[in-house]
Amino acid sequence: MGVQQQKLAVHDLEVGMFVSDLDRPWHQTPFPIQGFYIRSQNDVRALASHCKWVMVDEPENRDSVSVDGKSVLGFRARSKQRANERQEIELPPLSIRQPVRHKVTATLKKEVKTSKKLLRDAELALERMFDSVHTEAGLDGRLVADVTKKMVRSVCRQPNALLWLSRTRQYDDFVYRHALNTSVWALVVGRQLGLNEGLLNHLGAGCLLTQVGKTALPADIVQQEQQLSVEEFEIFRTYVQRGVEILQPSGISKAVLSVVQGHRERHNGSGFPSGVGGERIPLLAKVAGIAEFFETLIAPREGLEPMTPAKAVGWLYEMRNIEFQKDLVEAFIQAVGVYPAGTLVELSDGCRGVVVSHHPERRLFPSVMIMQASEQSLLKSGKVVDLARYNESRVPGTVLAVRECLPHGTDGLDLKALDATNEPRWSLRKHFTR
Predict the structure, then answer these.
(1) The domain defined by 108-336 carries CATH number 1.10.3210.10
(2) Which of 20, 145, 293, 399 suits 352 as a labelling partner, its CA being 20 to 30 A distant?
């Protein structure tokens, strides 16, 4: 009997499929080494807590497997049916009432300098907010509102600066970093959509508050949230409703609460806590959801290798009109680029560095801070090359482009050295030259 293998994302698995290999060593998971059938959605959820993709056997003639008393066909017989079951959900195009065209009014270098203190204030506000959640005084929403207004103004002036700093700064607490980075991604996308400052303030504040419910969960579940058992995941998913219950007495607006409550819902109804989809998810919650999901994919976590931002962008593209509305995915990519700020890259001439910003019109040619020469020797100081400008008069064959994205932790490309608050060697004070 011949057996072929197919690589599938975990969220594409169906009951009856036979999982023959994982994207990590078997001994790092609780699953049987010899492989196993997917017998229920609990198996899928268990896989999702450990893996991003798996290998599935597609036999020429595999016996049917009994699942909950029913006979389920093997993978080959169900493959065509699977494509139909994973339906795309088409909605009318997103319509923003009176969209605002935000103009760039500050240079990247100037806004990075302005935003240094802003991110420090944001960290402090988050720390104080999380500390106050379970005190008698309760959560002080003014802390979040004040810092959100400053973040919104910064993103409106120059969308790349705060994104750059949030990607290159280091934070002691993952929950703080996750909430803050999610907020920055969401604000950049909201700006792209043309949301006015009032809506952006609701969006930013909601994103900063999305993680509040995790303070009511056991610490080990929060720390290992991507490696949970089925039972632990059922506890984990309660963090959204717990967050809403914590925030309601604090006087937080309904618009902000809707972001917190809806950021884990999905376009096709596969999310939580309510399993709603499509037009039943508020727009701001949709933006927060795609931002939070993207940050989860690319964020470094102990024991887990994060995706490169470019791969995460590609994954989002594959999810359009399935887990995320098509218009929103396209707006996200337009806002952050194919190579978002903070992406480690190798150029076609062998030099290596990190993406600083991107051009909405020429998304394949971002601005890159060069940190290693072509022979991979570390430079004494960084220099930024604007690939779009550099290639303006170049003929085919001499164009300088991104050859590949590099994984987090690549030798010599340490994002810790890019902390602008410490005046590092790799500083945006350098001119955009090559």
Answers:
(1) yes
(2) 293
- Return d(Cα 307, Cα 108) in angstroms, integer: 26
Q: How many CA atoms lie within 13 A of 115 on its CB side?
A: 32
CB 281 within 8 A of CB 265: yes
Q: What is the per-residue burial (b if ≥16 Cβ within 10 Å, else e) of 411-422?
A: eebebebbebee
Burial 15-31 (b: 16+ CB within 10 A, else e): bbbbbbebeeeeeebeb
Predicted TM-score (pTM) above 0.85: no
Q: Are 89 and 278 in contact (CB under 8 A)?
A: yes
Angle at 406 between CA 211 and CA 400, to 5 degrees: 125
206-252 pLDDT tens trace = 999 999 999 899 988 988 887 888 899 999 999 999 999 999 888 88
Question: Could you tell me which residue, 425 or 317, shows the higher pLDDT?
Answer: 317
Model pLDDT for residues 118-149, shown as the tens digit of each residue: 988 888 888 888 877 777 667 777 888 899 99
State how far the Cα of 271 lies from the Cα of 234, in Å rounded to an integer. 13
Query: Nearest 5 degrees, angle CA 256-CA 259-CA 264?
Result: 160
State how beta strands 36-37 and 70-72 pair: unpaired
Read off the pLDDT of residues 338-384 as tens digits, 9 standing for 90 and up: 888 888 999 999 999 999 988 877 878 899 999 888 877 777 667 88
Query: pLDDT tier at 64 (50, 70, 90 boundaries)?
Result: very low
Number of separate helices (H) and strands (E) present in the chain: 15, 11
Q: How far apart are CA 141 and CA 226, in angstroms?
A: 29
Report d(CA 58, CA 8) in Å as an integer.
Answer: 12
User: What single letter denotes the amino acid at residue 106?
Assistant: A
From residue 126, how far is each of 123, 141, 153, 158, 286 by CA, in Å?
5, 11, 19, 23, 22
Structure tokens at 252: 């937080």
Contact in structure between 217 and 242 (CB atoms under 8 Å)? yes
What are the phi and psi torsion angles at 209 (to 5°)? -95, -5
Q: Average pLDDT of the chain?
A: 81
Portions of the chain given CATH number 1.10.3210.10: 108-336
Coil/strand/helix, residue 282: coil
